[in-house]
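Researcher: Re-running this chain for the archive, since the previous output was lost when a drive failed. Same request as before.
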Amino acid sequence: MSYNKDLRVAIFTGCYNHIVDGVSRSLNRLVESLEKNDVPVIIFGPAGKKPAFKHHGEFVPVPSIPLPGRTEYRLTTGIDMNAMSRLQAFDPTLMHIASPDWAGLQALKFAKNRNLPLVSSFHTNFASYLKYYRLKPAEKLAWKYIRWFYNQFDQVYVPTTSMREELREQGLSCDMRLWARGVDTKLFSPDKRNMAWRRKNGFKDSDKILTFVSRLVWEKNLASVIDTARTIRGENSNIKTMVVGDGPARNEMQALMPEAKFTGFMDGADLATAYASSDMFIFPSETETFGNVTLEALASGLPAIVADANGSKSLVEQNVTGFTASAKDSKKFAEYALHLAGNDDRRATMSRAARNRVTQEYRWETINSRLIEHYREALYKPNGSFYRLNPVWQNVREPRPSEINAIA
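Model: Regenerated structure tokens:
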């Protein structure tokens, strides 16, 4: 019996092709894997004026508005008649709702009415963002909504064990399964190191480049990057800081770090060259659920200095592939960078260990094949017969619009 015969997946997400970030990249990789395995799939999400990149699969836009204060992101406002008509015609047998927004709520209702198997994936820890926008008092309400939303699913996919532990502590009782992220180890490789590229960008051959790659938004803990660079500059002038990425905080960050190299947004082969031509990687963000850029850096052979926080700490093995420190402890970040810059042998050993771990454990093909197996388990009984699960939503009160608006 072919399990793929009855598997038809509808994915609802708040981010798919209008911006390049970890969520859109991960979901595009998943859709690519589904198509390769002959699984029909359709994606619903917000759209910008034009796609930020060429996406995989059939994408159906749903109504959305720019997110207040972060206009590069969009908040869905529901599912319109055109999208609903296409969803009904597609006739999914499994719903994957990847974002707890308004379209996600309507998709949840659609699935309930048809008693479809429901799965979700936890991509963004929105509650942890609130303190960066002076909204920490709303954190309790945010977690209440997160519990309500995700506890309704048959399966919820989380990227790391540390994230699963935090969600358990916050009261999520659903079936949480690991769905890590992969990396293209052919693209991101130490072989892409290019001394000519370094010289072209103003670096000396003797310089040690400490690189930060991210969207430049304050919730990525840019303050620790700035403070670390300042501390290092006073100790070792041969360590240069490079910032790869763009975002609303770039101008302010660049004014505070005039000595650093800002490359702007990079992707593909250009990004791979930037990683491999560096010597160390720093990522103090504490709002990650995984940390795709950390994985790319490790694949490129960079020892990584990251926050001892969910996501990153699951990727970096202390004293083996890099170091972890408290997200706000910029002195410790600087101490580790100074140590690596002054110890070529140690840095080379960590570089090899980082590359080896990634190539062994984080291949997209293996990771997404496991997720498809999870889909099949949600769709079929152990004996192989087709069924619809009875979700746990029946006695759970839906949130009032005012509660969701307060979080958004």
